[in-house]
């Protein structure tokens, strides 16, 4: 078993029991975000919120650095050194981070839009496209294609259901806001 398979198995062994137990406890009465489903007071709620906040604070810079590095290259800002370059780069990055915060705050129904984007893009990039690329590049017979195509099919079904739910939620929010 290669390290990637062990990693996926480990992640699955952690998430699957949590999902099963959570569904057993809350069923279909679970709230979004999930933190609203656990008791609102006490150490568990505060600890969960602290861990989610820590996760976002530690993940955001990693994800943004990829985007910011690409934008810096596009505007010919990378490759320099020295204090003037560092000041320009820091100001540039602060402005772009501020812009992302501004979008998240100013765009109405941002979380629902992100749910729609996530259902379409994340599932496509995680399940569908890698499976299809694998089939295109590495398979020679039908037997080798069945599992990747099955993964792509399950991903497509999941993306369709998620996108439909997010779309209907977005339409409901827009209608409710328009009628007020």
Which term fits the overall shape?
Answer: globular
| Strand residue percentage | under 5%
Mean pLDDT: 85
Order of helices and strands: HHHHH
Share of helix, binned:
over 70%
Number of helical regions: 5
Runs in which pLDDT lies below 50 for 5 or more consecutive residues are none
The end-to-end distance, rounded to whole angstroms, is: 58 Å
Computed Rg = 21 Å
Largest sheet: none
The count of β-strands is: 0
Structural class: mainly alpha
Structure characterization notes:
The protein is mainly α and 180 residues long. It contains five helices and no strands. Helix 4 packs antiparallel against helix 5. The protein is globular. The termini are far apart. The mean pLDDT is 85.
Describe the structure using short key phrases.
mainly alpha
Give the topology.
Elements: H1 3-26, H2 43-74, H3 83-106, H4 110-138, H5 142-179
